[in-house]
């Protein structure tokens, strides 16, 4: 959807990546790995976004314990927090993700085996253990097809977890740390049929 507006799927993936990690300077090869795109396309779109002013280029090595090697000059990229249209770009990306969520709602609701599903993390621009959490039974191929569509639409990798109802109940009774981290994280519940069990 957004690639039609922005002219490039790689550009959409890059914008989504930098909006999700506004404080992190990222090395070009790391960017390529995270959005799973050819390095030449990434370099071209990084140049476009730098010229546009949405991201900044730096040759400084971030203070992450990495030793400087003589003659090493890596380029790092980071979101430009002073970009005048940043609120509008962020709003546009969020609205596009909400449209994607609406389509996902319908797909997940159409599967009776799905008892609970919540969108988190990448969908809300917040930190969460996963981006999609599902409780119930759904064919793995079907779920992977839904996730592939989500990844294509939001321009980044979607991490997900699926628990059977039995496993969910067991983990809840055991006060499982992972499950409670999901309970505590911001989320948009798209399916909640657990109370009907």
Q: Which structural traits does this protein have?
A:
WH-like_DNA-bd_sf; 197 residues; 4-stranded mixed beta sheet; alpha+beta; 8 helices; single chain; WH_DNA-bd_sf; Arc Repressor Mutant, subunit A; Transcriptional regulator; 2 domains
If you had to describe this structure to a student in words, what would you say it looks like?
There is one protein chain. The chain is an alpha+beta fold and 197 residues long. The chain has 2 domains: 2-84, Orthogonal Bundle (Arc Repressor Mutant, subunit A); 94-196. Helix content is 48%, strand content 15%. The protein has helices at residues 2-6, 9-20, 28-35, 39-52, 86-109, 140-154, 165-173, 177-184; strands at residues 26-27, 55-58, 76-79, 114-119, 132-136, 160-163, 188-192. Helix 6 links the parallel strand 5 and strand 6.
């Amino acid at each position: 959807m957004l690639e039609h507006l922005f002219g490039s799927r790689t550009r959409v993936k890059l914008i989504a990546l930098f909006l999700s990690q506004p404080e992190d300077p990222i090395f070009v090869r790391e960017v390529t790995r995270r959005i799973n795109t050819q390095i030449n396309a990434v370099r071209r779109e990084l140049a476009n976004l730098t010229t546009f002013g949405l991201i900044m280029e730096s040759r400084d090595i971030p203070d992450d314990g990495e030793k400087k090697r003589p003659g090493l000059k890596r380029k790092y990229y980071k979101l430009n927090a002073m970009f005048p249209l940043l609120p509008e770009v962020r709003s546009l990306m969020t609205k596009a993700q909400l449209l994607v969520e609406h389509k996902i709602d319908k797909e997940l609701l159409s599967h009776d085996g799905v008892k609970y599903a919540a969108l988190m993390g990448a969908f809300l621009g917040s930190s969460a253990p996963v981006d999609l959490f599902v409780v119930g039974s759904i064919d793995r191929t079907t779920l992977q097809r839904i996730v592939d569509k989500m990844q294509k639409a939001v321009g980044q990798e979607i991490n997900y977890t699926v628990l059977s109802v039995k496993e969910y109940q067991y983990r809840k009774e055991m006060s499982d740390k992972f499950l409670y981290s999901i309970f505590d994280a911001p989320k948009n519940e798209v399916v909640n049929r657990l109370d009907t069990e």
